[in-house]
Specification:
The chain is α/β, with parallel strands linked by helices and 396 residues long. The protein has two domains: 173 residues, Flavin prenyltransferase-like (Rossmann fold, 3-Layer(aba) Sandwich), CATH 3.40.50; 205 residues, CoaB-like (Rossmann fold), CATH 3.40.50. It is 32% helix and 25% strand. Strand 18 and strand 19 form a beta hairpin. Helix 4 crosses helix 7. Bound molecules: ligand PMT. Ligand PMT binds next to helix 9, helix 11 and strand 16.
Length: 396
C-alpha cells in the first residue's frame, strides 16, 4: 500500500531521531521511495550517511545546497511527494511550522507543500504539555495536518509521561492507512480470527494452530478502508489492532453467541477463525488425574456458526474460509454450497509457508455463481486488501 509511493521523511533534532532510521528502512522494504530531510540538530543524533544508505537517496539538509541547477530542491521534493511525515517532530519544528517560519530545508519545503502532512511529536512531557506546544499542535491540526498521539512511558530525559515517538511499525501502519482507498466508509464489517479453545478440564483443552494473523490483517485493512470493524477473536498470537471493536472469546459456543448478536447490523461477515468442529461432551470440573492405560474423551459436534449465518443472512455478504490439506477445490465448493455463503476463500494449510501462523497466504476464492479467482502468494495484509477490494463489489 506504500509501494511506489513518494514519501518525504523530515527528521528533526530529538533523541527519537534514531527511530526514524528503522522507519526509513521499513518503508523502503515495503516498496516506498523515501527521501529524507534533516535539520542541523537532527544531524547531532544521526548522521546523513545512515539515512542515505537506508533510503538509497541523497539526504536534504541545506536549502541552498542545490545539486541540480534545473530544479529548486525544496520545491521539487514536495511537488513530487505523495506524503510528508515529520518524525520525530520537536517542539521547535512544531512551533516553526505552526507560525509559518521557513528558515531551513524542512520548514521551507513544508510551507510549499500541497500533499498531506503527518506530524509525530516527540519530546519531554513538560515541553509537550506546555500551552505553547499544545496551541501550536492545535494550529497544525487546523491546517489539516494529521497529528500522531505521542506514546506514554519512560522518556530519554528521565521523566515518565507522554512524549515518546511511536514504534516504527506503528508509524508504518499509520502511513499505510493514508494510502488506503476508503471503500468501506459507513459500512459494518464483522471478522472472526484465531482459534477456539474447547476445555477438557481446568488445565487442558483442544485447539488448533491458528495465530489469528489472517483475521487480524483483514480487520486492520477493513478499518483502514473506513469500515466500522467488529473482531470476534479467540486467543491471538498477534496484537489486537487499535480502532476495532474487539470481542475476545474462548470456545466455539462463545464465538457463536457473539457473532450471532452482532450479525444483524453487518454489511460483510468474514469467518477466518479456525473454529473447532468438536468439543468434549463433558468438561471435568477438576484437573483430571492420570490413570493407567487408555483414556477416552467423548466429543460432540459444535454449532457450525457459518452454516447458521448462511441460513439467517438477508442483506449481509457472507464469506467463509476453508482450511484444506487435500482436494482443495472439491472440499471448498462443497462447503460453499452446504453453508450458503457468497464467497469461500480456500487455503492449503499443509504448506507451512502459507495458511496457519505464516505471514503469507495463497488462496483460491470460490464464488456462489461457480466462478473462482486465484490470489498468488503474498503477505496476509496485501491479500486482505485484495480480498476486501473484491468483496466490496457485492456490498449494496
Ligand atoms: O490464523 P492464521 O495463523 O493466520 O491462519 C489462517 C487460517 C489458516 C486459520 C485461515 O486462513 C483459515 O483457513 N481459516 C478457516 C479455518 C477453518 O476453520 O476452516 P474449516 O474448513 O474447518 O471451516 C470452514 C468455515 O466454517 C470457516 O469459515 C470456519 O470459520 C467456519 N466454521 C467451522 C466450524 C464451525 N463450528 N463453525 C464455523 O463457523
Amino acid at each position: 500500500m506504500v509501494k511506489d509511493r513518494q514519501i518525504l521523511l523530515c527528521v528533526s533534532g530529538g533523541i527519537a531521531a534514531y527511530k526514524a532510521c528503522a522507519l526509513t528502512s521499513k518503508l523502503v522494504q515495503a516498496g516506498a521511495n523515501v527521501r529524507v530531510a534533516m535539520t542541523k540538530s537532527a544531524e547531532q543524533f544521526v548522521g546523513q550517511a545512515t539515512f542515505q544508505a537506508l533510503s538509497r537517496n541523497p539526504v536534504y539538509t541545506d536549502v541552498f545546497e542545490e545539486h541540480d541547477p534545473t530544479k529548486i530542491a525544496h520545491i521539487d521534493v514536495v511537488d513530487s511527494s505523495d506524503l510528508i511525515v515529520v518524525a520525530p517532530a520537536t517542539a521547535n519544528i512544531i512551533a516553526k511550522l505552526a507560525n509559518g517560519i521557513a528558515d531551513d530545508f524542512i520548514t521551507t519545503s513544508i510551507l510549499a507543500a500541497k500533499c498531506p502532512v503527518i506530524v509525530s511529536p516527540a519530546m519531554n512531557v513538560n515541553m509537550l504539555e506546555h500551552p505553547a506546544t499544545q496551541r501550536n499542535i492545535e494550529t497544525l491540526k487546523s491546517y489539516g495536518y494529521q497529528l500522531i498521539e505521542p506514546g506514554v512511558g519512560n522518556l530519554a530525559c528521565g521523566w515518565i509521561g507522554g512524549g515518546r515517538l511511536p514504534e516504527p511499525e506503528d508509524l508504518v501502519r499509520i502511513i499505510e492507512s493514508q494510502f488506503m482507498p476508503k471503500l468501506y466508509l459507513g459500512k459494518r464489517v464483522l471478522i472472526t480470527a484465531g482459534p477456539t479453545v474447547e476445555r477438557i478440564d481446568p488445565v487442558r483443552y483442544l485447539s488448533n494452530d491458528s495465530s489469528g494473523k489472517m483475521g487480524v490483517a483483514l480487520a486492520e485493512v477493513a478499518r483502514d478502508m473506513g469500515a466500522n470493524v467488529t473482531l470476534v477473536h479467540g486467543p491471538l498470537q498477534v496484537s489486537v489492532p487499535d480502532g476495532v471493536n474487539a470481542v475476545p472469546v474462548m470456545s466455539s459456543e462463545e464465538m457463536f453467541e457473539q457473532v450471532l448478536a452482532h450479525f444483524p447490523e453487518q454489511d460483510l461477515v468474514i469467518k477466518s477463525a479456525a473454529v473447532a468442529d468438536y468439543r468434549p461432551k463433558s468438561v471435568y470440573a477438576e484437573k483430571h488425574k492420570k490413570i493407567h492405560g487408555q483414556l477416552t474423551i467423548e466429543l460432540e459436534e459444535t454449532t457450525d456458526i457459518l452454516k447458521a449465518l448462511g441460513e439467517k443472512k438477508t442483506h449481509q455478504v457472507l464469506v467463509g474460509f476453508a482450511a484444506e490439506t487435500e482436494r482443495l477445490e472439491e472440499h471448498a465448493v462443497a462447503k460453499l454450497k452446504r453453508k450458503n455463503v457468497d464467497f469461500l476463500v480456500a487455503n492449503d494449510v499443509s504448506n507451512s509457508e502459507i495458511g496457519f501462523r505464516s505471514n503469507d497466504n495463497e488462496v483460491t476464492l470460490f464464488r456462489a455463481n461457480g466462478s473462482s479467482v486465484e490470489f498468488p502468494k503474498q503477505t496476509k495484509k496485501q491479500l486482505a486488501f485484495e480480498l476486501l477490494t473484491y468483496f466490496k463489489e457485492e456490498i449494496r
